[in-house]
Design goal:
heterodimer, A: mainly alpha, MetI-like fold, flat, B: MetI-like fold
Chain lengths: 223, 242
């Protein structure tokens, strides 16, 4: 806890960056799960006529949405072993945050699909595309653009939420921060460095989503 | 690992799983309810602080004076670029070395208030922006002072658009208040943690804790969605739930 300020920052950064790697790994894994499961949920919500399926999706989505992430992680990490399923901390975090993300991706994408004009699907089918081809090549690409800003929010939220994985001992940024605090006692500086590190990841991530959105808008408004 | 995997519990195990609720429910219920009371206090006080701070920030964001606008923009951007948990830990562990010590409850309220203020400022800005420009001009032309125009013409219309997003912001704070458990605030999640290790029934206890949150948050989410349809005039909500 001595020495010039920059030196102290430089001292804590390597471990925090190691934590950032885990945080990014958790976020990427969870984003992949969220994208795949969320797309499936959105398509089922849009095209399934089975009451049971729709009800099950609604129940899943509302549970994920109205219960805090910490509770989801505790259920997966502390609860599942009691019924014989043991997940490593990082895996539990990926699954837990991935399921939360899937609910929000499913919601955003389903809303986007709903706002597409019905004629898009009819026209695609009329040109001879199979129903799944119409979904894959006509409906989803358009829905993706509508859903993009929402996806950007979800992605940032997901990266932020990796911080709670420290509560189940996943070795991410907050976890290493706590270790550093107990070894160096440079508490204020360490937690400030943590904030800077998160902002250094989140600001570019958010800006990246906005950049893609602008490019699309310019491409579609070009003559 | 595969030996310990047992994804399909036998029927008697499943019955035992639910029997735990019947057996311990009378002890768990009141303890979780006591935690939920602290959760309600944390989130409501945090929300009130967030509304106050958010109003001030929204006013500063809309100001023509750069001395007000730029710091407000920086604060909003900063709060939206960091996880709440990191902010809570900085306030709780990082301030005492500088001579500022707060209880975990006060830290929780302050952290939730600061964090919520940023999102509420954005909601309020969106709400005011949704009022057609002509409304203000007409009010001023009718002889109202700028303050009176804001109070009697602009805010009432903006509030219609803001109600549902504000309710969503509260639900987000309610969920976020669970992070206060990690700075030892004696709320719902911390109560559940204690009970989970005390009774060795983590699955049941955490599911029940989740249900407590759900029972409070879900009706509010439904209300927000209904209000959004009724009052939002078909406009998409500004601050959709996190």
């Amino acid at each position: 806890m001595s020495g010039p300020l920059l030196q102290r920052f430089a001292d804590v950064m390597p471990l925090l960056l190691a934590g950032a790697r885990t945080a990014v790994l958790i976020a990427l894994g969870a984003a992949l799960l969220a994208a795949m499961l969320g797309t499936a949920l959105a398509l089922l919500r849009t095209f399934s006529r089975s009451r049971g399926v729709l009800l099950a999706i609604a129940a899943f989505t509302e549970w994920q949405r109205n219960v805090p992430g910490v509770a989801h992680l505790f259920i997966l990490y502390f609860g599942l072993p009691a019924i014989g399923i043991k997940l490593a901390p990082v895996l539990a975090a990926i699954v837990g945050l991935g399921l939360v993300g899937a609910a929000s991706v499913g919601d955003i994408l389903a809303n986007a699909l709903r706002t597409l004009p019905a004629g898009q699907r009819e026209a695609a089918l009329a040109t001879g595309l199979a129903p799944w081809q119409a979904i894959r090549h006509v409906l989803l690409p358009q829905a993706l653009r509508l859903a993009w800003p929402g996806f950007g929010n979800s992605a940032c939220q997901l990266l932020k939420d990796t911080s709670i994985a420290s509560a189940i001992a996943a070795p991410e940024i907050m976890f290493f921060a706590r270790n550093l605090v107990t070894s160096t006692f440079d508490t204020t500086l360490i937690y400030l460095a943590v904030l800077v590190l998160y902002a250094a990841m989140l600001v570019p991530l958010g800006a990246g989503f906005v950049w893609v959105e602008r490019r699309w808008r310019r491409a579609s408004s070009a003559p | 690992m595969s030996e310990s995997m047992n994804p399909m519990p036998a029927p008697q195990e499943l019955a035992g799983f639910f029997a735990a609720f019947a057996e311990h429910g009378a002890e768990w219920g009141p303890r979780l309810a006591a935690g939920a009371l602290v959760t309600a206090q944390l989130s409501l006080l945090g929300f009130m602080l967030a509304v106050l701070g958010g109003s001030a920030l929204a006013a500063a964001l809309g100001s023509r004076a750069a001395v007000l606008r730029l710091p407000a923009q920086a604060l909003v951007q900063a709060m939206r670029s960091v996880p709440l948990l990191a902010l809570l830990l900085l306030l709780y562990f990082g301030l005492p070395p500088l001579g500022v010590t707060m209880s975990s409850f006060v830290t929780g309220v302050l952290g939730l208030g600061l964090y919520g203020a940023a999102s509420i400022a954005v909601i309020m800005q969106g709400g005011l922006a949704a009022v057609p420009r002509g409304q203000r001009e007409a009010a001023l032309a009718a002889g109202l002072t700028p303050a009176a125009a804001l109070r009697h013409v602009l805010l009432p219309q903006a509030l219609r658009v803001m109600t549902a997003p504000l309710l969503n912001a509260y639900v987000a704070l309610l969920k976020d208040s669970s992070l206060c458990a990690l700075i030892a605030s004696n709320e719902l999640m911390l109560a559940a943690r204690g009970m989970a290790s005390e009774y060795f029934l983590p699955m049941q206890v955490f599911l029940l804790a989740g249900l407590f949150y759900f029972v409070i948050a879900f009706p509010l989410s439904l209300l927000a969605r209904w209000l959004d349809r009724r009052l939002g005039n078909g406009r998409r909500g500004v601050g959709s739930p996190a």
